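Support request, please re-run this one:
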Amino acid sequence: MESGKSPGAMRNIAAALSDYRKTAYHHYGNRPSSLFRFFYYSALRVNTFWLMENDLSESLPEIPMDPCYRVMKPSLEELARIRTGMDLPREFYYDRILNLKTCYLAFKDDELAYIHWVLTGGDHSRFLILPADAVELNYNTTLRKFRGNRLMVKMLCHICHDLEAGGYRKAFGVVHEANPPSISAAENAGFRKIKKIRALGPFNRKVLV
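Re-run finished. Output below.
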């Protein structure tokens, strides 16, 4: 199993715990039971995840963004400026938490709506060992007021087309089995389930893809 003492794992755990109430309410709803669900899934339960793969050399689905949305691939300096003064969930701070370098943002009428991070072989991945021609898509979220518009699947399609144009061969994602909306979005964007990964709280073995 991956050591909980690895720098990346420890930073991720610390980030989750530092503002656990906000994280729990963002993901599970603004109610007291969300705090229990957060700790149960994060620390106590044996969780099962689907490893999902998208072969970027094949024909990729075309699901365009709605006209009121625009997509941006910001530099880290631009990202820092965009989030200045905003109260955002931790998914918007993985440049600080894990030193990630690449993300995509979606805006609706210039209002920030969505983020998705792209990990390459040099980045810390909890689950995967990546070759040079593959990426992992992880640490994404849709801000609550923009949910219900299939924003995740549209962003996945946009990102995968951009990655293919950049020379990448495959994209991977790791999705909790109890998250059917994200699994469905990934499948509609061309991903397929290839393997189950089990984890006890934050601990798991890494998979070579």
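Confidence is low (pLDDT under 50) at residues 1-5. DSSP finds seven helices and nine strands in the chain.
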